[in-house]
Amino acid sequence: MSSNFDPKSDPNAAMQAMLQAGTAMFENLSKFTAAQQQPAMPAGVNPAAWSAESDAVKALQQDWMTKHTALWQGMLGKTPDQPAPAIAVPQAGDRRFDNPAWAESPVYDYLRQAYLLNSDYMRQLAEAAPVPDGLSKNRMRFAARQMIDAMSPSNFVATNPEFIKTALETNGESLRQGIANLIGDLEKGRISMTDDAAFEVGRNIAASTGSVVFENELFQLIQYTPLTEKVGERPCLIVPPCINKFYILDLQPENSFVRYAVEQGNTVFLVSWRNPGEAQGHLTWDDYIEQGALTAIGVVKDICGTDQINALGFCVGGTLLSSALTVARGRGDNSVASLTLLTTLLDFSDTGEIGYFVDENSVATREATIGKGGLLRGSELSTVFSSLRANDLIWNYVVGNYLKGNKPPAFDLLYWNSDATNLPGPFLAWYLRNLYLENSLRVPGKLEMCGVKANLGRVDMPAFLLASREDHIVPWKTSYLGRGLLGGETTFVLGASGHIAGVINPAAKNKRSYWTSASDSSNADEWFETSTENKGSWWPLWAEWLKGFNGKQIAARTKLGNKRHAAIEPAPGRYVKEKA
């Protein structure tokens, strides 16, 4: 569709564009979940217990009708100078109806409150359904929430007073701009969450100075330029997740974890995973261990001339790094002196809402379609992650971009969030089957990786584990279980906020807080009961912990790489700029 399209001259095409946007929004999510065929009623549940005639349904319906009757009667009975009856109010934190326009008109106020009553009814139905707690119940809750979020009157032109008010105030300019925004997003294939023109990888994000000193089919290895005269003898290798671009750890200078680590006197290396194309569709989990993490460890040791390094893994990168270390230790290799894991799962017993998409049928389908070769497109995975917070990451931008005609503000984190990455099919299928579905990594000897029986108990170097209290991707209590699987002494820290904001909490801003405890309890709740809340960023605590494993102080290296691994190109390199 051409961006020169004029909606005023072709209103039918404008309406068609709106319909296409709505269809595209759920297309990737539908693809991801299509293979999950669940029975209409889980085994062991009596269908008669959940019929329209059941007492539970009758009670909910009666309460719902009573509240709707009260709302309707209250609206009819009010005088113009009276406030509308408050039969239903938004949940805490719901800002969709904050604009005064929703209360100024009895029509829109009725639509708002009727929607809130219906939403509450759907939530209660999901909770009251005679489905045992577990995957089926959680899927029911998730599906109810997706429907509730999608059907909000704030999402539609005809039922959003802010749309009409803005159109009148701008003499229709918001309509023109909204359709232009929509057409632009259709061409991009995604909803704009930020001003893309405000950022450029290598210019004002992922801009820490350094050089690519090694590359293969899977990754480029970046060595960063030192910022102190003296550095610790042991370098630090960072292994980010391969499902995202690495620069979440190197956004802008003021919130760059990479820069902070360098400023603390560390020689920092980082794995920049390749955004796989069709030619990399054959890559496996073992490839990411052998040719990825283990190769990176070897190159870092060679460049720095050390027997040991410190290593840090974030999210899936932490799972990969831990898997690589159990392989290394099984081979008698003790190359890593300390391990840091940020929001990482080693035990997959509770994987949060991501786990709702994973069952035997869905995994078998992935194995049959791309398990022997192929790609999971980054756009598909990105849509699924956005659906976990649909109001914030989907509908908020539908309303702002298309209904109000706004341009989203510049936000580096959301620019990164929109920079999707593909995944090789064999890698993904193995990961889903062995970790998410069967949770085999926690069982010593059950998995074989790179010809070695995996045993996390052999990963016995001191470890620093960080989880985030409001993480919806890596639940913190599940992350805590990793303490009982690793063989060495562990330090556990719980950060405030979610999966990203809990990690990217710059020391310079010193916001939020984190919890610490000397308890080594195997139970996360018991650990938390003994913990102390500390104001500010956890970064300085980690930096001080890492100093204990850095070895003696030496002069910082002025030349990056060495004779065997000479600098290839300036950081951040080519791989991170490849688009999905």
Question: Can you offer a commentary on this structure?
Answer:
There is one protein chain. By secondary structure, this protein is α/β, with parallel strands linked by helices. The protein folds into two domains: 11-38 and 53-196, no CATH class; 210-352 and 441-577, Alpha/Beta hydrolase fold, catalytic domain (Rossmann fold), CATH 3.40.50.1820. It is 39% helix and 12% strand. The protein has 18 helices and 17 strands. It has helices at residues 11-33, 55-77, 101-104, 106-128, 135-150, 161-169, 173-188, 257-263, 285-304, 316-330, 360-369, 378-387, 390-403, 412-417, 425-437, 476-480, 524-529, 539-547; strands spanning 210-215, 219-224, 230-232, 236-239, 268-273, 309-314, 336-342, 375-376, 423-424, 448-449, 452-453, 463-468, 490-495, 513-516, 532-535, 553-555, 569-570. The strands form four sheets. Strands 15-14-13-12-7-6-4-5-2-1-17 form an eleven-stranded mixed sheet, with helices on both faces. A two-stranded antiparallel ribbon has the order 3-16. Strands 8-9 form a two-stranded antiparallel sheet. Residues 1-45 have low confidence and may be disordered.
Fold topology:
Layout: H1 11-33, H2 55-77, H3 101-104, H4 106-128, H5 135-150, H6 161-169, H7 173-188, E1 210-215, E2 219-224, E3 230-232, E4 236-239, H8 257-263, E5 268-273, H9 285-304, E6 309-314, H10 316-330, E7 336-342, H11 360-369, E8 375-376, H12 378-387, H13 390-403, H14 412-417, E9 423-424, H15 425-437, E10 448-449, E11 452-453, E12 463-468, H16 476-480, E13 490-495, E14 513-516, H17 524-529, E15 532-535, H18 539-547, E16 553-555, E17 569-570
Parallel strand pairs: 4-5, 4-6, 6-7, 7-12, 12-13
Antiparallel strand pairs: 1-2, 1-17, 2-5, 3-16, 8-9, 10-11, 13-14, 14-15
Helix pairs in contact: 1-7, 1-12, 2-4, 4-5, 7-13, 9-10, 9-15, 11-15
